[in-house]
Amino acid sequence: MDLPGWQAIYEELKDKNFEIVAAAQDTAGEAASGKFYDRAKATFTTLNDPRHNVSTLYHMINVPTGVWIDEDGRIVRPPEVAYSKEQKVLGQTIGDDRYIEGLYDWVEKGADSKFVVPVEKLTEQFAVVDPKLQLADTHFKLAVYYHNQGDEEAAAEHWQKAQSLNPESWNYHRQQWSFEPKTAMKHWFEKYKALKGKPYYAPLELPGSEE
Q1: Are the C-beta atoms of 27 and 147 separated by less than 8 Å?
Q2: How far apart are CA 7 and CA 84, in angstroms?
Q3: How far apart are the C-alpha atoms of 91 and 36, rounded to whole Å?
Q4: With contact defined as beta carbons under 8 Å apart, do 82 and 66 qualify?
Q5: Where are the alpha helices (DSSP H) in the chain?
Q6: Residue 37 and residue 62 in contact, taking contact as beta carbons nearer than 8 Å
Q7: Into which CATH architecture does domain 3-125 fall?
Q8: DSSP strand pairing (87-89 vs 92-94)
Q9: For 84-106, what is each residue's pLDDT tens digit?
């Protein structure tokens, strides 16, 4: 999450019944994420989720990922890449300015916003997860547990099982790499190159910004 950009957006919208809740998906918790929250001078709600419960509940496989939830606790847009503006990374466009246009539209119009996703489509997306992916998440949680217990051999075994069962999850890889700072970027770039032109993030499904 590009926190400074979101802090600016929050300042504009906080008086319109709008709140940002940032949940850092870092096994190392505050030690990993706290400096980024501090650097952004974040005044919105900032949390640490070292057990990755948010990623599991919302089927998140990469960061930053955002979910829109209304005043009644209902999801109105599913998990999707959540940058505060469109930008270029390694020659690829990530983010979409229409995402923020849609956010402002939703804050203003609520359920009448054209950016709200129909309940039927959301229900389909949040249907029961493939057992293979559930098993991957179980191995991932075991890896986190063993890492926290200091058993890196057992942790590595479960990191690898999680990654092999769900290779689409960048979060699974990223957590293991985060404990190998000297080689983390090397591993990330190798996986990125293996995409061979496929998008790093799934494209956003948004209506056109023109009426």
Answers
A1: yes
A2: 10
A3: 25
A4: yes
A5: 3-13, 30-40, 53-58, 97-109, 119-125, 131-148, 152-165, 170-177, 184-193
A6: no
A7: 3-Layer(aba) Sandwich (3.40)
A8: antiparallel
A9: 999 887 777 888 999 999 999 99
Q: Which residue has the higher pLDDT, 125 or 33?
A: 33
Residue showing tokens 């990623």: 55
Q: For all residues of the chain together, what is the average pLDDT? A: 92
Domain extents for the chain? Answer: 3-125, 131-193
Structure pTM? 0.90
DSSP 28: T
Beta bridge partners of 48: 24
Cβ-based burial of 36 (10 A; exposed 0-12, middle 13-18, buried ≥19): middle
**Residues comprising the chain, all counted:** 211
Cα dihedral 47/139/158/49 (nearest 10): 0
Cα–Cα distances (Å) from 80 to 94, 95, 125, 202, in that order, read 12, 10, 12, 8
* pLDDT reading at 210 higher than 70: no
- Return the amino acid letter for 85: K
pLDDT tens digits, residue range 43-63? 999 999 999 999 999 999 999
Q: Which residue has the tokens 């849609």?
A: 102
The token pair at 158 is 């479960």
Q: One-letter amino acid identity for 16?
A: K
Strands 75-81 and 87-89: unpaired
